[in-house]
Amino acid sequence: MKNNKHPALPGFMAGLEPLSRRGFLRATALTGAAFTAGCAHLMGRRDAPQAIQYRSLQPDEAEVLTRLTEVLLPTQSMGLPSSTQVVPTVQNIDAMAARMPDQTRDLLGLGIWVFDRRPMVSFKFSRFTSLSDDKALAYVNAMQDGPFFERGLMTTLKALVTLNYWRDERTWPGLEYSGPVSELWGIRRLGNAPLPRA
């Protein structure tokens, strides 16, 4: 029995009748990701010379993460070890990225690419790596208060930077942290011993 409650779709929409809301959203997300990846491919990655050889990060990704590290961790004003000169924050991120599954690593690269080029909309066609300290911090704050996608991307990148800075032992005195108490107190490791029973 034909359902006559809804009028027939126009010609250019023909064939979309069986597409559910979930299917439409999935197709839209995949199309957006493909478009962004295509733009990244057309614009090309810059092969800027670099002194540090990374295992996983591309030179442009390392540049973005280095700039983000400088903005998020102004260590000189806090009397903490430098997040770029003393603590190898970006190298730590590189080691973490090298252990990621291929799909996760690709998504990270896409996220970094989008993050770097997103300011071109509101900062006179400047990339994140080209912004001054004040504008870069304003951009980070705007991303934190932005739509769901921007907040998620900013949270991910902030976690990468801050975790890979503070995990270095040279930063612990600034937190008045002297290391794991199991080592400090000489607690014997039990391995995978079963939990005690009452």
Radius of gyration from the alpha-carbon trace, in angstroms = 23 Å
**Count of helical regions:** 8
Low-confidence stretches: 9-16, 44-49
H-E string: HHHHHHHH
The main pleated sheet reads as: none
User: Based on CA inertia axes, which overall geometry fits?
Assistant: globular
Mean pLDDT comes to 79
* Number of extended strands: 0
InterPro entries: TAT_signal, TAT_signal_bac_arc
Keywords: Signal
Describe the secondary structure blueprint for this structure.
Blueprint: H1 21-43, H2 59-72, H3 75-78, H4 89-98, H5 102-117, H6 133-144, H7 148-166, H8 181-184
Question: Any overview of this molecule?
Answer:
The structure is a single chain. The protein is an all-alpha fold and 198 residues long. It has a domain at 54-168. Helices cover 52% and strands 0% of the residues. It is built from 8 helices and no strands. It has helices at 21-43, 59-72, 75-78, 89-98, 102-117, 133-144, 148-166, 181-184. Helix 2 crosses helix 7. The longest helix is centred in the N-terminal third of the chain and has 23 residues, at 21-43. The radius of gyration is 23 Å and the shape is globular. The protein starts with 20 loop residues before the first helix and ends in a 14-residue tail after the last helix. The relative contact order is 0.10. Residues 9-16 and 44-49 have low confidence and may be disordered. InterPro entries: TAT_signal (IPR006311), TAT_signal_bac_arc (IPR019546). Keywords: Signal.
